Every structure is written in C-alpha cells, then in structure tokens.
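Researcher: Excuse me, tokens okay?
***
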Amino acid sequence: MTLAPVDWVASLGRATLNLCRSTGAVVLFALEGLSHLVRPPFHPRLFLRAFMEVAFFSLPVVGLTAIFTGMVLALQSYSGFSRFGAESAVANVVVLSITRELGPVLAGLMVSGRIGAAFAAEIGTMRVTDQIDALTTLSTDPMKYLVAPRLLAAILAMPLLVVVADVLGVMGGFLIGTLKLGFSGPGYLKSTLDFLQVMDVVSGLVKAAVFGFIVALMGTWCGYTSRGGAQGVGAATTTAVVSSSILILALDYVLTEAFFAR
C-alpha cells in the first residue's frame, strides 16, 4: 500500500523526534557520567580493571592493524608517486597519514568493536537481570560504579594505544620502504623525522581521547538502557558498535577541521 504524502511527513517527523530524544538522552547521560568523575567516592579497582581491558588487552589488535596499515600505505604511496617521480615523499605521507588520521581512527574503530561491545554486553546483562536495580537498593550509584570508571579509563587509555599505533604504523612503512622499495634506512628515518611536526602527533592524541570517550559512552549507554532479555542485550551491543563507529568518523572530520582548517 502506497503511503500518502502526509504519512511520509508524519514518518519523517517521528524519526526526527526520536533522533532528538535519543541525542538528548545520550548528552544527559554523558554529563552525569562526567560529573561523577569529579565527585567522591572513586573506585580505583574498577578503574584499573577497565583501563587494563581497554589499554592492555586491546593492544594486539590495534598493533597488528597499525603495522599492516603502514605497510599497505607505503606500497600504495610508492605505486602512485612513482608515476610522477616523487618516490621520496613516501616516508612523509606514511608518517603524516598515520599520526593525523589512520592511527587514531583505526584504533578507535578496533576498540569500538572490542570494548564498546564488551561494555554494552556486560552492563546490558546486568540491566536485564536486575543487577543494576540491586546496586541502587544497596545504596550504590550505578553511574559512579559502572559508567564513570569506564569513561575515565577509555579517555586515558586510547591516547596510549594511539602512540603505540603511530610507532608501529611508521615502522610498518619503514620495513616495506627499506626491505622492498629500496630506500636506505637512515634516509627514510631522516625524512620521517624532518617532516613530522608536534601538532601532527598532538592532534592524533586529542582525537584518541575523544574517540575513547565516545566508545565508552556509547557502550555504557546502550547497555544501561537495554531492555528485553538476551535479544535486547544483543541489540544494544550492535547499536553500541555501529553508533560509536559512525560518531568516530563524523567527529574525525570535525576535529580535523578544527585543527588544520586554514
């Protein structure tokens, strides 16, 4: 059955209202979670557990992604630049792309798939099994106990992961450049260090902190608001990964515009 124009307008209006409602709920949830970071008490054990989960246990997947990305980037850059006789710019492109964009973005996406899903599944399971209500009954604030430590851990851990990703990504480009493309090791490193600027690294680390906050926020919010048993937890996990991935890509443009727009 074909919908009348007024039905299309009504559907669009409902979708817009739902989007505004969800956006407002997420913003209020984020503000409440951040407010608990500056109010006692603090749960160091929960923070350390979340920090280890984000930083240490995510290190293998982030490291492998970064090193292979650097390798592919060096190969593709050399293939393109060789058409114009600009092969010497390969090292510059690799270090610039890794530190500014690919390091924080790919690390954010990998952590989103791993940590965002884990946060949503864990908290969602607690929600549907009434464990969060039990915390409230025991006079324990769920936001301070479940959300705030994860937010802080992700904000602090993501820049550390991106530092490792930057180093491994540049190393991947260095290995391909020296072992396959014929660059000299000292020359490649000199070109990399001469071209690299402090702002390139700083912008990537700021992006990493923002992306870490987004991953933890969407993971905890989707889990905290999940409903409907096991099916609801699965839906919350999927929503956490998809929404945080989209927000990472959108905010990457916004932050790049803020740092490097002329």
Summary: Residues 49-260 form one domain. Residues 71 and 238 are 31 Å apart (CA to CA).
